[in-house]
From TrEMBL:
Pfam families named in the record: DUF1540
UniProt protein name: DUF1540 domain-containing protein
InterPro entries xref list: DUF1540
Organism the protein comes from: Heliomicrobium gestii (Heliobacterium gestii)
Domain DUF1540: from-to ranges: 6-66
């Protein structure tokens, strides 16, 4: 499987790296409706247990792996930052 490159421009995320890169080992992309109805701890580590959802367009999706930089919540989701 080819290595994936995840690009992100949310500079205040714990997983943001210069060059607009996401360095999270895992991410969870969900519909806005799903994301707004779930607590922050529902993230990539639970992906295999979640049912697939649909979104009407790109603007109806969100990254559930966001963790504010310097918030002290970097290990809440159990997804470790790549080094």
């Amino acid at each position: 499987m080819p290595q994936q490159h995840i690009h992100c421009i949310v500079s205040n995320c714990h997983y943001y790296q210069s060059g607009n890169k996401c360095v999270a080992n895992e991410i969870l992309v969900a519909s806005d409706k799903f994301g707004s109805n779930q607590p922050d701890n529902v993230d990539a580590t639970m992906a295999a247990q979640l049912s697939a959802v649909s979104a009407s367009d790109c603007m109806s999706t969100c990254c559930k792996s966001f963790v504010p930089k310097d918030s002290g919540k970097a290990d809440v989701d159990g997804v470790k930052r790549m080094q």
